[in-house]
Amino acid sequence: MGPNGSIRALRQRCVSGQTVNRTRPTKAPFDEVPAPAGPLRHAWRVVAGGLCFGVFGIGTLLVSAWLLLVIRPMPGVSPARKSVWVRAWIRRLARFFIDLMQLLGLMVYRVENTERLARPGLLVVSNHPSLIDALFVLGHAPDICCIVKRELLGNPFIAWLVRSAGYLTNDSAALVDEAAAVLRGGRSLLVFPEGTRNTSDLALNFKRGAAHIAIASGVPVLPVTIDFTPRALGKGERWYIVPRRPSRIQVIVHDAFDPVGLAGADLPADAPVTRLARRTTQVLRDHFVERTLRFADPTAPGDGQRPDERAARSRPTTASTGAGA
Amino acid sequence: MTADERNAALLAAMERLFELPPERIVPQARLYEDLDIDSIDAVNLVIELRRLSGRSIGAERFRDVRTVGDVDAVLEQVLGEGE
Question: Region A203-226: what's the mean pLDDT?
Fold first, then answer.
Protein backbone atom coordinates (compact mmCIF):
# COMPACT_ATOMS: atom_id res chain seq x y z
CA MET A 1 0.00 0.00 0.00
CA GLY A 2 2.82 2.33 1.01
CA PRO A 3 4.51 3.29 -2.28
CA ASN A 4 1.31 3.10 -4.30
CA GLY A 5 -0.51 5.25 -1.84
CA SER A 6 2.17 7.89 -1.83
CA ILE A 7 2.34 7.97 -5.63
CA ARG A 8 -1.38 8.46 -5.79
CA ALA A 9 -1.16 11.24 -3.26
CA LEU A 10 1.63 12.88 -5.25
CA ARG A 11 -0.44 12.65 -8.44
CA GLN A 12 -3.38 14.23 -6.74
CA ARG A 13 -1.22 17.06 -5.46
CA CYS A 14 0.18 17.52 -8.94
CA VAL A 15 -3.26 17.63 -10.48
CA SER A 16 -4.50 20.13 -7.97
CA GLY A 17 -1.35 22.16 -8.53
CA GLN A 18 -0.44 22.23 -4.83
CA THR A 19 3.18 21.19 -4.94
CA VAL A 20 4.27 21.06 -8.56
CA ASN A 21 3.30 23.81 -10.91
CA ARG A 22 3.56 21.83 -14.13
CA THR A 23 2.69 23.36 -17.44
CA ARG A 24 1.40 21.34 -20.37
CA PRO A 25 3.96 18.65 -21.15
CA THR A 26 5.80 19.34 -24.37
CA LYS A 27 8.46 17.40 -26.19
CA ALA A 28 11.68 18.61 -24.63
CA PRO A 29 13.91 18.34 -27.74
CA PHE A 30 11.58 20.59 -29.68
CA ASP A 31 12.12 23.58 -27.43
CA GLU A 32 15.88 23.54 -27.73
CA VAL A 33 17.51 24.64 -30.94
CA PRO A 34 19.25 21.45 -32.09
CA ALA A 35 23.04 21.70 -32.15
CA PRO A 36 24.86 21.19 -35.45
CA ALA A 37 25.97 17.58 -35.75
CA GLY A 38 29.61 16.45 -35.93
CA PRO A 39 30.76 14.46 -38.99
CA LEU A 40 29.96 11.06 -37.46
CA ARG A 41 26.51 12.04 -36.35
CA HIS A 42 25.87 13.69 -39.70
CA ALA A 43 26.91 10.53 -41.55
CA TRP A 44 24.54 8.53 -39.36
CA ARG A 45 21.70 10.87 -40.19
CA VAL A 46 22.30 10.43 -43.92
CA VAL A 47 22.12 6.66 -43.42
CA ALA A 48 19.04 7.04 -41.22
CA GLY A 49 17.40 9.17 -43.89
CA GLY A 50 17.95 6.46 -46.46
CA LEU A 51 16.63 3.93 -43.98
CA CYS A 52 13.44 5.97 -43.60
CA PHE A 53 12.83 5.88 -47.34
CA GLY A 54 13.27 2.11 -47.22
CA VAL A 55 10.90 1.75 -44.29
CA PHE A 56 8.43 4.05 -46.04
CA GLY A 57 8.45 1.80 -49.12
CA ILE A 58 8.09 -1.39 -47.10
CA GLY A 59 5.41 0.09 -44.82
CA THR A 60 3.26 1.29 -47.69
CA LEU A 61 3.62 -2.05 -49.48
CA LEU A 62 2.64 -3.98 -46.35
CA VAL A 63 -0.43 -1.84 -45.80
CA SER A 64 -1.31 -2.04 -49.51
CA ALA A 65 -1.05 -5.82 -49.36
CA TRP A 66 -3.26 -5.93 -46.27
CA LEU A 67 -5.88 -3.76 -47.93
CA LEU A 68 -5.73 -5.59 -51.23
CA LEU A 69 -5.77 -9.14 -49.87
CA VAL A 70 -7.94 -8.77 -46.79
CA ILE A 71 -10.00 -5.60 -46.82
CA ARG A 72 -10.93 -5.40 -50.50
CA PRO A 73 -12.40 -8.93 -50.85
CA MET A 74 -14.33 -8.53 -47.60
CA PRO A 75 -18.03 -9.10 -48.35
CA GLY A 76 -20.88 -7.01 -47.03
CA VAL A 77 -18.85 -3.81 -46.55
CA SER A 78 -19.55 -0.83 -48.78
CA PRO A 79 -16.68 0.68 -50.80
CA ALA A 80 -17.25 3.98 -48.99
CA ARG A 81 -16.74 2.28 -45.65
CA LYS A 82 -13.61 0.61 -46.97
CA SER A 83 -12.16 3.91 -48.11
CA VAL A 84 -12.65 5.19 -44.55
CA TRP A 85 -10.56 2.26 -43.37
CA VAL A 86 -7.89 2.99 -45.97
CA ARG A 87 -7.66 6.56 -44.75
CA ALA A 88 -7.39 5.33 -41.17
CA TRP A 89 -4.43 3.19 -42.23
CA ILE A 90 -2.86 6.14 -44.00
CA ARG A 91 -3.23 8.13 -40.78
CA ARG A 92 -1.40 5.45 -38.80
CA LEU A 93 1.32 5.14 -41.44
CA ALA A 94 1.85 8.90 -41.62
CA ARG A 95 2.10 9.13 -37.86
CA PHE A 96 4.51 6.20 -37.76
CA PHE A 97 6.82 7.74 -40.37
CA ILE A 98 7.13 11.14 -38.77
CA ASP A 99 7.60 9.59 -35.33
CA LEU A 100 10.26 7.29 -36.74
CA MET A 101 12.09 10.22 -38.34
CA GLN A 102 12.01 12.05 -35.03
CA LEU A 103 13.18 8.97 -33.14
CA LEU A 104 16.14 8.56 -35.49
CA GLY A 105 17.16 12.13 -34.84
CA LEU A 106 16.43 13.36 -38.38
CA MET A 107 14.15 16.12 -37.20
CA VAL A 108 11.98 17.23 -34.32
CA TYR A 109 8.38 18.23 -34.87
CA ARG A 110 5.36 19.54 -33.07
CA VAL A 111 1.80 19.93 -34.30
CA GLU A 112 -0.16 22.55 -32.38
CA ASN A 113 -3.95 22.72 -31.99
CA THR A 114 -4.59 19.34 -33.57
CA GLU A 115 -8.10 19.35 -32.08
CA ARG A 116 -9.06 21.89 -34.75
CA LEU A 117 -8.54 19.22 -37.40
CA ALA A 118 -11.31 17.13 -35.85
CA ARG A 119 -14.10 19.40 -37.07
CA PRO A 120 -15.59 17.75 -40.17
CA GLY A 121 -15.89 19.33 -43.60
CA LEU A 122 -13.08 21.88 -43.53
CA LEU A 123 -10.90 22.98 -46.42
CA VAL A 124 -7.46 22.53 -44.85
CA VAL A 125 -4.92 24.73 -46.60
CA SER A 126 -1.18 24.60 -46.01
CA ASN A 127 2.09 26.00 -47.28
CA HIS A 128 4.32 23.38 -48.86
CA PRO A 129 8.04 23.52 -48.03
CA SER A 130 8.90 19.81 -48.05
CA LEU A 131 8.21 16.29 -49.23
CA ILE A 132 6.71 15.20 -45.90
CA ASP A 133 4.31 18.11 -45.20
CA ALA A 134 1.18 16.12 -45.89
CA LEU A 135 2.17 13.50 -43.29
CA PHE A 136 1.81 15.98 -40.42
CA VAL A 137 -1.78 16.78 -41.39
CA LEU A 138 -2.76 13.27 -42.52
CA GLY A 139 -1.28 11.84 -39.32
CA HIS A 140 -3.29 14.12 -37.04
CA ALA A 141 -6.68 14.48 -38.73
CA PRO A 142 -9.35 11.86 -37.96
CA ASP A 143 -10.53 11.42 -41.54
CA ILE A 144 -9.27 13.62 -44.32
CA CYS A 145 -9.10 13.48 -48.10
CA CYS A 146 -6.48 15.25 -50.16
CA ILE A 147 -5.61 16.37 -53.66
CA VAL A 148 -2.48 14.71 -54.99
CA LYS A 149 -0.40 15.27 -58.07
CA ARG A 150 -1.26 13.04 -60.98
CA GLU A 151 2.37 11.80 -61.01
CA LEU A 152 1.86 10.06 -57.65
CA LEU A 153 -0.23 7.45 -59.43
CA GLY A 154 2.97 6.49 -61.24
CA ASN A 155 4.67 5.70 -57.92
CA PRO A 156 4.11 1.96 -57.35
CA PHE A 157 4.53 2.28 -53.58
CA ILE A 158 1.65 4.65 -53.02
CA ALA A 159 -0.46 4.54 -56.17
CA TRP A 160 -2.79 1.90 -54.81
CA LEU A 161 -3.18 3.63 -51.45
CA VAL A 162 -3.97 6.92 -53.18
CA ARG A 163 -6.59 5.31 -55.39
CA SER A 164 -8.35 3.30 -52.72
CA ALA A 165 -8.36 6.19 -50.26
CA GLY A 166 -10.51 8.16 -52.71
CA TYR A 167 -7.97 10.98 -53.03
CA LEU A 168 -8.51 13.41 -55.87
CA THR A 169 -5.88 13.96 -58.55
CA ASN A 170 -4.99 17.41 -59.83
CA ASP A 171 -5.46 16.51 -63.52
CA SER A 172 -9.22 16.06 -63.35
CA ALA A 173 -11.20 18.55 -65.41
CA ALA A 174 -13.96 18.48 -62.78
CA LEU A 175 -11.56 18.82 -59.83
CA VAL A 176 -13.30 21.83 -58.26
CA ASP A 177 -16.70 20.11 -58.33
CA GLU A 178 -15.27 16.84 -57.02
CA ALA A 179 -13.53 18.65 -54.19
CA ALA A 180 -16.67 20.59 -53.31
CA ALA A 181 -18.65 17.33 -53.23
CA VAL A 182 -16.18 15.79 -50.76
CA LEU A 183 -16.43 18.85 -48.51
CA ARG A 184 -20.20 19.11 -48.65
CA GLY A 185 -20.30 15.41 -47.78
CA GLY A 186 -18.73 16.39 -44.46
CA ARG A 187 -15.20 15.20 -45.05
CA SER A 188 -12.25 17.55 -44.76
CA LEU A 189 -9.88 18.09 -47.66
CA LEU A 190 -6.18 18.99 -47.60
CA VAL A 191 -4.95 21.30 -50.35
CA PHE A 192 -1.57 22.90 -50.99
CA PRO A 193 -2.48 26.05 -52.95
CA GLU A 194 1.08 26.41 -54.23
CA GLY A 195 0.42 23.26 -56.24
CA THR A 196 3.92 21.92 -55.62
CA ARG A 197 6.71 22.25 -53.07
CA ASN A 198 7.85 25.86 -52.80
CA THR A 199 11.40 27.14 -52.78
CA SER A 200 10.69 29.80 -50.19
CA ASP A 201 7.91 30.43 -47.71
CA LEU A 202 8.33 34.12 -48.42
CA ALA A 203 7.09 33.79 -52.00
CA LEU A 204 3.93 31.73 -51.37
CA ASN A 205 2.87 31.66 -54.98
CA PHE A 206 -0.72 30.49 -54.47
CA LYS A 207 -2.63 29.16 -57.48
CA ARG A 208 -6.35 29.90 -57.52
CA GLY A 209 -7.63 26.31 -57.28
CA ALA A 210 -8.02 26.40 -53.49
CA ALA A 211 -10.05 29.62 -53.74
CA HIS A 212 -12.34 28.08 -56.35
CA ILE A 213 -12.89 25.08 -54.08
CA ALA A 214 -13.69 27.36 -51.14
CA ILE A 215 -16.18 29.29 -53.30
CA ALA A 216 -17.84 26.19 -54.76
CA SER A 217 -18.13 24.36 -51.43
CA GLY A 218 -18.94 27.26 -49.10
CA VAL A 219 -17.05 25.61 -46.23
CA PRO A 220 -14.61 27.43 -43.90
CA VAL A 221 -10.88 27.34 -44.55
CA LEU A 222 -8.55 25.96 -41.88
CA PRO A 223 -5.05 27.39 -42.38
CA VAL A 224 -2.06 25.25 -41.41
CA THR A 225 1.43 26.73 -41.42
CA ILE A 226 4.52 24.55 -41.57
CA ASP A 227 7.77 26.12 -40.41
CA PHE A 228 10.52 23.79 -41.62
CA THR A 229 13.86 25.16 -40.37
CA PRO A 230 16.41 24.48 -41.72
CA ARG A 231 14.69 23.43 -44.90
CA ALA A 232 15.23 19.89 -46.18
CA LEU A 233 13.50 17.43 -48.53
CA GLY A 234 12.64 20.36 -50.77
CA LYS A 235 11.76 20.35 -54.43
CA GLY A 236 14.58 18.98 -56.56
CA GLU A 237 16.75 18.22 -53.54
CA ARG A 238 18.42 14.84 -53.14
CA TRP A 239 17.42 12.86 -50.09
CA TYR A 240 21.02 12.49 -48.94
CA ILE A 241 21.50 16.23 -48.66
CA VAL A 242 20.78 16.40 -44.94
CA PRO A 243 21.21 19.67 -43.04
CA ARG A 244 23.90 19.79 -40.33
CA ARG A 245 21.28 20.74 -37.78
CA PRO A 246 18.23 18.50 -37.54
CA SER A 247 15.22 20.37 -38.90
CA ARG A 248 12.78 21.77 -36.43
CA ILE A 249 9.29 21.51 -37.83
CA GLN A 250 6.57 23.55 -36.21
CA VAL A 251 3.13 22.84 -37.60
CA ILE A 252 0.42 25.19 -36.39
CA VAL A 253 -3.27 24.64 -37.03
CA HIS A 254 -4.80 28.11 -36.97
CA ASP A 255 -8.39 29.23 -36.48
CA ALA A 256 -10.80 28.46 -39.31
CA PHE A 257 -11.89 31.53 -41.29
CA ASP A 258 -13.92 32.53 -44.33
CA PRO A 259 -11.71 34.09 -47.03
CA VAL A 260 -14.55 34.05 -49.57
CA GLY A 261 -16.74 36.22 -47.35
CA LEU A 262 -13.89 38.66 -46.77
CA ALA A 263 -13.11 38.78 -50.50
CA GLY A 264 -16.74 39.17 -51.50
CA ALA A 265 -17.23 42.11 -49.15
CA ASP A 266 -15.54 44.56 -51.53
CA LEU A 267 -16.84 43.13 -54.78
CA PRO A 268 -20.20 43.81 -56.44
CA ALA A 269 -22.68 40.97 -55.89
CA ASP A 270 -22.74 40.10 -59.61
CA ALA A 271 -18.96 39.92 -59.98
CA PRO A 272 -17.89 36.86 -62.00
CA VAL A 273 -16.46 33.89 -60.11
CA THR A 274 -13.08 34.49 -61.77
CA ARG A 275 -12.80 37.83 -59.98
CA LEU A 276 -14.01 36.42 -56.66
CA ALA A 277 -11.40 33.65 -56.95
CA ARG A 278 -8.66 36.25 -57.57
CA ARG A 279 -9.69 38.27 -54.54
CA THR A 280 -10.09 35.16 -52.38
CA THR A 281 -6.63 33.93 -53.35
CA GLN A 282 -5.23 37.32 -52.35
CA VAL A 283 -6.99 37.22 -48.97
CA LEU A 284 -5.81 33.66 -48.38
CA ARG A 285 -2.24 34.48 -49.31
CA ASP A 286 -2.14 37.60 -47.14
CA HIS A 287 -3.45 35.50 -44.27
CA PHE A 288 -0.55 33.09 -44.73
CA VAL A 289 2.11 35.72 -45.28
CA GLU A 290 1.12 37.32 -41.97
CA ARG A 291 1.68 33.97 -40.24
CA THR A 292 4.75 32.70 -42.08
CA LEU A 293 6.62 35.96 -41.45
CA ARG A 294 6.81 34.83 -37.84
CA PHE A 295 8.73 31.74 -38.84
CA ALA A 296 11.85 31.10 -36.80
CA ASP A 297 14.89 32.90 -38.05
CA PRO A 298 14.11 33.03 -41.76
CA THR A 299 17.50 34.55 -42.58
CA ALA A 300 19.64 32.05 -40.65
CA PRO A 301 22.28 30.43 -42.84
CA GLY A 302 20.62 27.06 -42.58
CA ASP A 303 22.90 24.37 -43.87
CA GLY A 304 21.23 22.31 -46.53
CA GLN A 305 19.66 25.43 -47.97
CA ARG A 306 20.54 26.20 -51.54
CA PRO A 307 22.19 29.56 -52.13
CA ASP A 308 19.20 30.87 -54.11
CA GLU A 309 17.02 29.80 -51.22
CA ARG A 310 19.12 31.70 -48.73
CA ALA A 311 19.08 34.73 -51.01
CA ALA A 312 15.30 34.58 -51.33
CA ARG A 313 14.89 34.37 -47.57
CA SER A 314 17.19 37.28 -46.84
CA ARG A 315 15.85 39.52 -49.58
CA PRO A 316 13.87 41.82 -47.26
CA THR A 317 17.06 42.65 -45.33
CA THR A 318 19.00 43.27 -48.52
CA ALA A 319 16.27 45.48 -49.87
CA SER A 320 16.19 47.67 -46.79
CA THR A 321 19.98 48.01 -46.84
CA GLY A 322 19.80 48.96 -50.48
CA ALA A 323 17.22 51.62 -49.77
CA GLY A 324 19.39 53.11 -47.05
CA ALA A 325 22.52 53.24 -49.18
CA MET B 1 -20.37 41.91 -86.09
CA THR B 2 -17.44 43.85 -87.52
CA ALA B 3 -13.85 43.13 -86.58
CA ASP B 4 -13.78 46.22 -84.39
CA GLU B 5 -16.95 45.24 -82.57
CA ARG B 6 -15.63 41.76 -82.06
CA ASN B 7 -12.34 43.08 -80.66
CA ALA B 8 -14.13 45.44 -78.34
CA ALA B 9 -16.40 42.68 -77.07
CA LEU B 10 -13.47 40.35 -76.38
CA LEU B 11 -11.56 43.12 -74.67
CA ALA B 12 -14.54 43.96 -72.47
CA ALA B 13 -15.11 40.33 -71.58
CA MET B 14 -11.49 39.77 -70.57
CA GLU B 15 -11.40 42.98 -68.56
CA ARG B 16 -14.55 42.00 -66.74
CA LEU B 17 -13.55 38.40 -66.03
CA PHE B 18 -9.88 38.79 -65.24
CA GLU B 19 -9.47 42.35 -63.93
CA LEU B 20 -6.85 43.02 -66.57
CA PRO B 21 -5.94 46.54 -67.65
CA PRO B 22 -6.95 46.91 -71.34
CA GLU B 23 -3.41 47.84 -72.44
CA ARG B 24 -2.22 44.34 -71.50
CA ILE B 25 -4.86 42.60 -73.62
CA VAL B 26 -2.94 42.69 -76.90
CA PRO B 27 -3.05 40.04 -79.65
CA GLN B 28 0.43 38.66 -78.92
CA ALA B 29 -0.12 38.37 -75.13
CA ARG B 30 0.06 34.75 -74.01
CA LEU B 31 -2.91 33.75 -71.87
CA TYR B 32 -1.11 31.67 -69.27
CA GLU B 33 2.36 33.17 -69.12
CA ASP B 34 1.57 36.86 -69.62
CA LEU B 35 -1.98 37.24 -68.37
CA ASP B 36 -2.07 34.62 -65.59
CA ILE B 37 -5.18 32.96 -67.01
CA ASP B 38 -5.48 29.42 -65.66
CA SER B 39 -7.55 26.45 -66.84
CA ILE B 40 -10.58 27.41 -64.74
CA ASP B 41 -10.41 30.94 -66.16
CA ALA B 42 -10.29 29.49 -69.67
CA VAL B 43 -13.51 27.55 -69.05
CA ASN B 44 -15.17 30.76 -67.87
CA LEU B 45 -13.86 32.63 -70.91
CA VAL B 46 -15.37 30.04 -73.25
CA ILE B 47 -18.73 30.37 -71.48
CA GLU B 48 -18.52 34.13 -71.87
CA LEU B 49 -17.66 33.82 -75.58
CA ARG B 50 -20.66 31.55 -76.11
CA ARG B 51 -22.84 34.13 -74.46
CA LEU B 52 -21.60 37.06 -76.49
CA SER B 53 -21.49 35.22 -79.84
CA GLY B 54 -24.78 33.44 -79.29
CA ARG B 55 -23.18 30.30 -80.76
CA SER B 56 -22.28 27.02 -79.19
CA ILE B 57 -18.51 26.74 -79.20
CA GLY B 58 -16.97 23.37 -78.44
CA ALA B 59 -14.11 23.39 -75.94
CA GLU B 60 -11.98 21.45 -78.44
CA ARG B 61 -11.69 24.56 -80.62
CA PHE B 62 -9.57 26.13 -77.90
CA ARG B 63 -7.09 23.29 -77.63
CA ASP B 64 -4.34 25.09 -79.53
CA VAL B 65 -5.19 28.55 -78.32
CA ARG B 66 -2.19 30.24 -76.66
CA THR B 67 -2.59 33.99 -77.15
CA VAL B 68 -5.29 36.64 -77.16
CA GLY B 69 -4.95 36.71 -80.96
CA ASP B 70 -5.73 32.97 -81.09
CA VAL B 71 -8.92 33.52 -79.06
CA ASP B 72 -9.95 36.29 -81.43
CA ALA B 73 -9.30 34.02 -84.43
CA VAL B 74 -11.56 31.30 -83.00
CA LEU B 75 -14.25 33.86 -82.31
CA GLU B 76 -13.99 35.23 -85.85
CA GLN B 77 -14.22 31.74 -87.30
CA VAL B 78 -17.26 30.85 -85.19
CA LEU B 79 -19.08 34.04 -86.13
CA GLY B 80 -18.20 33.51 -89.80
CA GLU B 81 -19.70 30.03 -89.82
CA GLY B 82 -23.15 31.28 -89.02
CA GLU B 83 -23.37 33.58 -92.01
Answer: 96
